[in-house]
Design a protein that fits this description.
The protein has 451 residues and is an alpha/beta fold. It folds into 2 domains: 3-45, no CATH class; 54-372, TIM Barrel. It is 26% helix and 23% strand. The protein contains 11 helices and 18 strands. Helix 4 (162-175) packs across helix 6 (208-227) and helix 6 (208-227) runs parallel beside helix 7. The two termini are 21 Å apart. The model has no long low-confidence stretch (mean pLDDT 97). It comes from Thalassomonas haliotis.
C-alpha cells in the first residue's frame, strides 16, 4: 500500500488556502492534518509551493481511434499531466468512429488501454440518426452527450435540428446527464464567406448573432421540455459571445438547469491583436474583440459562466495551413492543453482572483459538471489523491520545445506566463515531475455508474 504525506504552507482545501499536511493512503486522501502533524510515513515538505486538487478538464478532443495523426490518448494525457490536469473528459467527434453508439464507445475504450497518464471520462454524441440508441449509449457509461447546431466539419457528426433536440431531451433528463451544445446557429443560411488570410474576415463570417440565436433556442427548448416534465441539464460549450450571457442569465432565473463554460483563448486573447495569416488562432466560435473578452471575465467573476476548460482541439500542422496563412482553409481549433492553469493565472491575478477561486473554476466545478464530484476536485478525506504542486510565483516563456501534445504548435509560443506546474499526482501516484514523466501510464477510464 502506498502511504505518504505532502506538507505545504499553501494547501487548497475546503474552499480556502491553509498550511496543512495531506496524508495519502492507497490512492485516496486519508486525512488533512495540521501543518506540523507527526506521521508514521514519509512526509515531503513543499514549503511555499501550492498543493491543490488536480484540475478537471471536461472539454478535450483526443481523436483516437481513427485520427491519431491529429492527437492520441498517450500524448494528450501527457500534456494534461504536464498542465496539472488529473482528469479529463474526451469529446465524441474527430475520432473514427464518432462516439454515437455503444459499439463505437467500446472501440474507444479498447483504444485507451495502457495509454492514459491521467483519468479519463467520455462524452457521447447526439446526431439525428442515433436518438433511438441514446439509452443504450448512456447506459454504457458516457457521462453525457454533445450536439452541434451548425456543421461540425466532421461529416459523420451532423448537426441537429430543434425536433431532434426535443426527442433527445427526455432521454437525457431521465439519465440526469448534461446535454452539451456547440452553440452557433446560422438562421439565415449565409453563403460561405471569402476569407483568405484576413482574421477580421473570418471573425465577420461567424458573428455573435450565431451564438446569441443558438443559446436563445436552447433556452426555449429547455423551458419547453421542463414544462413537459423533463428538466434537462443544458450546457453551452466554449462560450465566445458575451452578448449571449443575457439568455443564460434569463434561463437560470427561470429555474432551468442551464450552464455555460468558456476557455483560456477567449479570456486571454482578443481579435485586435491577432495578425492576418496566423492560422493557429483560428477556432469556432472565434476569438472576439477585447471589449467582449472583458465582459466574459465579468461573467466568470459573477457566476454567469460556471467554469473554464481548454477545448483542446488539435490537428496536423498541414491542416492548419501554417505556411500559406490561409485562415479560410485552416482547420479550426486551439492546442494549449498543458498551459491552461498558467494562462488563466497570469490574467486572473491581475483582476483580483486568488488561486482558491481559480482552482474552483478549473477543478471543483468541472468535476461537479461531469458527475465526478464524489471522487474528484477536492482535497478531502475519501477523495482520489489527485494533486497538483504549483509554483504560483514562477514565470516562464512558452516555447515549442516544451509542448507535450503531439504536434509542437500553439498560438501561445513566445508568451510569458505566471505559475508553473511542478508535480502532478494521479490517485497518489506521481506521473509528472520537473518536466519529466514518471514511471508509466496510471490513468483509467471513468464510466458513469462505475466510478
Amino acid at each position: 500500500m502506498v502511504h505518504f504525506a505532502l506538507r505545504s504552507n499553501k494547501v487548497i482545501t475546503n474552499g480556502e488556502m491553509i498550511a496543512a499536511c495531506v496524508e495519502i493512503k492507497d490512492q485516496i486522501i486519508h486525512a488533512v492534518h495540521p501543518h506540523d502533524q507527526q506521521l508514521d510515513c514519509q512526509v515531503e515538505d513543499l514549503g511555499d509551493l501550492v498543493l491543490m486538487p488536480g484540475l478537471v478538464d471536461s472539454h478535450v478532443h483526443i481523436n483516437e481511434p481513427g485520427r491519431t495523426e491529429w492527437e492520441g490518448f498517450n500524448t494528450a494525457t501527457q500534456a494534461a499531466a504536464a498542465g496539472g490536469i488529473t482528469t479529463l473528459v474526451d469529446m465524441p467527434l474527430n475520432c473514427i468512429p464518432v462516439t454515437v453508439n455503444k459499439a463505437a464507445f467500446q472501440e474507444k475504450l479498447d483504444a485507451v488501454h495502457d495509454k492514459l497518464w491521467v483519468d479519463c471520462g467520455f462524452w457521447g454524441g447526439v446526431i439525428p440518426q442515433n436518438i433511438g440508441e441514446l439509452d443504450e449509449l448512456l447506459t454504457a457509461g458516457v457521462l453525457g452527450v454533445k450536439s452541434f447546431l451548425i456543421d461540425s466539419g466532421i461529416k459523420e457528426f451532423p448537426q441537429v435540428e430543434a425536433d431532434d433536440i426535443r426527442k433527445a431531451m427526455p432521454i437525457l433528463a431521465k439519465h440526469d446527464v448534461p446535454y452539451l451544445i456547440h452553440a452557433e446557429l446560422d438562421c439565415a443560411h449565409t453563403p460561405p464567406a471569402t476569407i483568405g488570410d484576413k482574421y477580421q474576415s473570418f471573425l465577420d463570417s461567424r458573428p455573435k448573432k450565431w451564438e446569441n440565436d443558438a443559446v436563445a433556442l436552447m433556452a426555449d427548448l429547455a423551458k419547453e421540455a421542463k414544462a413537459n416534465g423533463h428538466d434537462t441539464k443544458v450546457h453551452i460549450v466554449h462560450l465566445s459571445s458575451a452578448e449571449a450571457l443575457s439568455s443564460i442569465s434569463d434561463a437560470k432565473a427561470q429555474g432551468l438547469q442551464f450552464t455555460a463554460e468558456t476557455c483560456p483563448h477567449y479570456l486571454t486573447l482578443h481579435s485586435e491583436a491577432i495578425p492576418d495569416g496566423k492560422t493557429l488562432f483560428k477556432c469556432c466560435p472565434p476569438i472576439r474583440e477585447d471589449e467582449n473578452r472583458q465582459t466574459l471575465w465579468q461573467a466568470v467573476e459573477d457566476g454567469r459562466i460556471s467554469f473554464i476548460v481548454s477545448d483542446h482541439s488539435p490537428c496536423t500542422p498541414e491542416l492548419k495551413h501554417i505556411d500559406t496563412g490561409d485562415i479560410e482553409k485552416a482547420w479550426g481549433g486551439i492546442s494549449a492543453l498543458q498551459f491552461g492553469i498558467s494562462l488563466i493565472w497570469t490574467e486572473a491575478q491581475k483582476r483580483g482572483f486568488d488561486l482558491v477561486e481559480i482552482n474552483r473554476l478549473m477543478s471543483a466545478e468541472t468535476a461537479k459538471f461531469a458527475g465526478l464530484d464524489s471522487i474528484k476536485g477536492q482535497i478531502a478525506p475519501g477523495y482520489h489523491a489527485d494533486l497538483l504542486v504549483f509554483d504560483d510565483r514562477a514565470e516562464y516563456e512558452i516555447s515549442n520545445d516544451m509542448i507535450k501534445h503531439r504536434h509542437k504548435i500553439t498560438p501561445y509560443v513566445g508568451k510569458t506566463v505566471s505559475g508553473r506546474v511542478e508535480k502532478t499526482y494521479v490517485r497518489g501516484q506521481l506521473v509528472y515531475r520537473d518536466d519529466e514523466f514518471v514511471a508509466s501510464p496510471v490513468g483509467r477510464p471513468l464510466l458513469k455508474g462505475k466510478l
